[in-house]
Structures are given as structure tokens and as C-alpha cells.
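protein under study:
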Amino acid sequence: MATNDPTRPVYVIGAGPGGLAVAAALRGRGVRAVVLEKADAVGDSWRHHYDRLRLHTTRRLSALPGLKMPRSFGRWVARADVVRYLEKYAQVHELEIVTGVEVSTVERADGDGWLLHATGGRRLTGRAVVVATGYNHTPHLPEWPGADSYTGTLLHAGQYRNPAPYVGKDVLVVGSGNTGAEIAVDLVEGGAGRVRLAVRTAPHILRRSTAGWPAQASGILVRRLPVPLVDRAAGAVARLSVPDLSDKGLPRPETGLYARVREGAIPVQDVGLIAAVRSGRVEPVAAVESFEGAKVVLADGSHLSPEVVVAATGYRRALEGLVGELGVLDGRGRPTVHGGRTAPTAPGLYFTGFTNPISGMLRELAIDAEKIAKAVARS
């Protein structure tokens, strides 16, 4: 069989925004796409994010191909509305989705195409495969010395839902990315007794919107510009719009904003962190080094005794078991290609959703979907 044999579908692994967008784009080009999802519903990761989460990208620039987000969702779309949108998206595009099926390994099929090993001993053969299992796939907890013997409560941010269980408690949030910053603010506003934020590298902080102009729009405009130029401009904007919090333990970063983006560190969109730090309600502290019983040891040698530690320490892509033998991952476990491009050693194997662009994840997923559909149809 040839790769473009229409009797074999394209398999899309993952029914999050990226997978659904690709399936819809393929269907729009007359290509049968079957979405395989290990959970029992679409948008599973969005169903389990913390309650107060909203998109940091605008509604208009976050829609997937072929369906606008309703105006009733507002400019900054809530987590629950994202889930509703994804459900509606699958219905409107009449997508073929099989839930409860987890793909364990992808390998080249005999002759041509791809063979997927999945739940229940399934062996599925497709003309092409799109891996869309998500940027936030497997929670990552650092191997802190003594963590196993910590007598307080230690949880990953992926387990955090809302501040209700932590009212009146002393909480340390570890990690000053968008998730850690927002959880810290959520805890303060929700009645936690004390909230500290452990910071290893000071983040760049942006106003989500300035005079009605969203930070995402700036991110789109500067993506193709030289890094030094963007860094200089971003530094000037930050000095005008974001107060110096050095005396509160949160200094301005030494590395430029866009240089940090190229390293994989997205700026923090301010949803209350600046005000909370200025008022002392969120207290920045040094990075966590280890645990000693009920105490947390910080990089500056100080000791804390929080009742709860929330580790906003990121996720792993966890692609090694799925495609690790195909030579398509770099040294950090990330795909070496994305969108409409495939690795020379793996034609017909596509990836989407494994970058964290400054221009907005959902916007880039929509662009990738069209590129992948075009490439598959052309093949």
C-alpha cells in the first residue's frame, strides 16, 4: 500500500486543541482523520487545570480553524469555557474521536505508513500520524533531597484546583512562571494565611493588556525581529509599565525578554502578581534546595516551615516511549520538527503543540493544523 492510500486514515494522537484542530483541517481537505484520546472526553488537560485559569491570549486570536469563540466568553476566556468550546468544536466539525485509547508506541509499518500499538492490544495502521499529546503532559517534580520525608503537604500545581483547602494555611509556591504566579495570587485572594513564592530565576513580567493593546499582539509582531532589538524594546516598555520590585525580592531579569523566550521561558502575564508583591501579600523567596522534616531549605541558606508546598515546576513532554526510537527528538525530549515539516527519517510523522510561542499557543496550533493538513493532502 502507498502512503496516500485513502483506505487508511490519518491517526491523530490527543484530543486537545491541537489534535482537534488538525483533525478538522484534514477533514476539510477530504482526508479521513481518527483522533485517539486516552481520556474519556476531549480537552482532558483543560478539564483539570485550576479553576481560576483564563487564557492569557485574546478570544479572537485563540479560536481554532472553522469556529469562532462566542463573544459571550469575554476577551479573556475562562478554563470552563475553553472546555465547552472544544466540545462544540468536535461536534461542529463532526470529528471521528475514539476515547479511552492510549497509544504506547508508534513505529514504521511494513512496507509503508505507520503502525500504532494501543490499549487492548490494538495494532492500528495509518497513512500518517500526528502527535498532539500536549505541552503539559506529565507533571514534573524535581528530585529535591528529603522531599520524601517532608511532613507537610507537597503537591504539583497540576493537582491544585482552588484555594479553599488552604484557607488560613502557610503556603509556599515553588516556581515563578505563569502557573506559579497565578496560583500564588489565587491563594492570597482565597484566604491563605501566608503565601511565599520561591524564585530561581526572576521572570519577565508583562501587563496582559496596556491601553487595550494585548501583550499577545506585540508577541505576534516581534516574532521575526532580531532578538537584541526586541530585548531593548521590551526592556524599555517594562521600565515604563512594570514597577521595580527589587526591594521586595523580585528584581528585574538580567537576560532580555526575547532571549529568554528563545530559551523556552515565556514571560509572566500579570493577573495580580505585581500588586500582591508590592503589598507584601506574596513574598518572593530564594529557590528551594531541599527538605528537612517539616522545613524547606532555600538556596540562600534560610529555612521555612510551610504547611503546604505547591510545586509549579512544569511538565515533561514524555514522548520518549512513544516515538523515542525514531530519531525525531532532541536532547531535551522535544520534537525536532513541528507543523507541516517532518524529519527525514520519519516522513508522514507530524507534531503539533510542543512549543510555547510568545504569540500564543492556540493561535500557533491553528496555524500548524492548516500546514499539517496541507502537507498530508499533498503527500
